[in-house]
From TrEMBL:
Matches recorded under SMART domains: IDEAL
Entry similarity comment: Belongs to the UPF0302 family.
Protein name, as recorded: UPF0302 protein UR08_02470
Organism: Listeria kieliensis
Domain (IDEAL): residue spans on this chain: 137-173
Classification via InterPro entries: IDEAL_dom, UPF0302, UPF0302_N, UPF0302_N_sf, Virus_scaffolding_prot_C
Amino acid sequence: MKTPISVDEKKDFIRWLLNTHQMKMREAMWVLNYIAGHDQIMKYVHFVDDLDGKNRGLVLSAHGVDNEPFRFFKGNLTTSDPEKAFHDIRLNWDENLYIMLHFKEALSSPEYALVREENSAQELKIGEDEKLLAEKFLDQMMSRFEQEALKQEIDQALDRRDKETFLKLSALLQEKTF
């Protein structure tokens, strides 16, 4: 689990983003600057890769990517008007705001990785059957790995003409039930 992301880290990221990428809509830059200028809002800002299951979100895109330039939603209402988004953010500063960003090489950006959070609405739910299947698979892979490592040691003993080690490892390989 990742440690909580500080307000300062989020603010530094927004500054970095605005200095290195030009947003498709200049109003998006204004909204980001406003958010970064208010610590009380930044406490509730979360950068995510997916907005599924979120009640309030903002999608912003920089030049160089083929995504929508600006979208804000709250509940079932969606708008591409930055002024409406700004108004909601200003009035409801103490509500979680999830921001999904699109810019070149976003997923490989260490700056973005530092502030991105997992989408808790998409937690993986694994049943008992799946757990048992995964354990069985892991056990099989570990056995195969051990078997291959033992075979490699046997080969090395043969290369060294070490009969004693060869016989000992060969016996061990035969007694193990892989």
